[in-house]
Hints:
With 229 residues, the chain is of the alpha/beta class. The protein has two domains: 8-18 and 107-227, Rossmann fold (3-Layer(aba) Sandwich), CATH 3.40.50; 20-101, DNA polymerase, domain 1 (Orthogonal Bundle). It is built from nine helices and six strands; from the N terminus they run E-H-H-H-H-H-E-H-E-H-H-E-H-E-E. Strands 3-2-1-4-5-6 form a six-stranded parallel β-sheet, sandwiched between helices. Helix 1 packs across helix 2 (41-60) and helix 2 runs antiparallel to helix 3. It is elongated. The model has no long low-confidence stretch (mean pLDDT 95).
Amino acid sequence: MKVNGITDVFFDLDHTLWDFDKNSAFTFDKIFKLNNLDINTDKFLEYYVPINLKYWRLYREDKIDKKSLRFVRLNEAFLAVGMEFDKSLVIKLSEDYITHLSTFNYLFENTFEILDYLSLKYNLHIITNGFDEVQHKKLNNSGISKYFKTVTNSEMVGVKKPNPKIFHYAIDKANAVMDQSIMIGDSYEADIIGAQNVGMDTVFFDVNDKNVDKNLRSVNNLIQLKKFL
């Protein structure tokens, strides 16, 4: 059923439009080869993915800072696969990862199609917890920056989703109205609950079919947003 009265659509970026897991896997494969490390990327990612999610949750809750996040997620993953490296090498790998991450730009299926469709009807925006220096590269290198009138990231606001302040900041920056705006994202806590708490409509991008709340508007392919918008 269509959501009426919407003028502005806000998207999360990572895991919603930009296929973070796929791009991250290619990046690790690249930096391991660049640094002559004999590491099975698939095996490494089995440990890294949940470890990364754990530390991103702590980062979102302001329990660790960006520098710590970048180091500990890698160091813990290496230890988990039975490899221990000097701190200097882990730091270098963390820097190489950020440098090369935005050189891979796989998007989720139908990203361009849905953005073409929505941009004719709504003002489109981004709200992301990602790092400032990386997110703009992702948008530009993937070819989707042209669709978005504003981009709000957590570093410019000083807080992260689901903190209400980032949503209010994004709404003000977009010159939008809260009850005429809708948030689309993959994180139930950060995107959906965060947006609902400030009075925004939401659509959950349930790409992994988590079915966290049967009462939510949800899609598992971006083209399905046409049902609601």
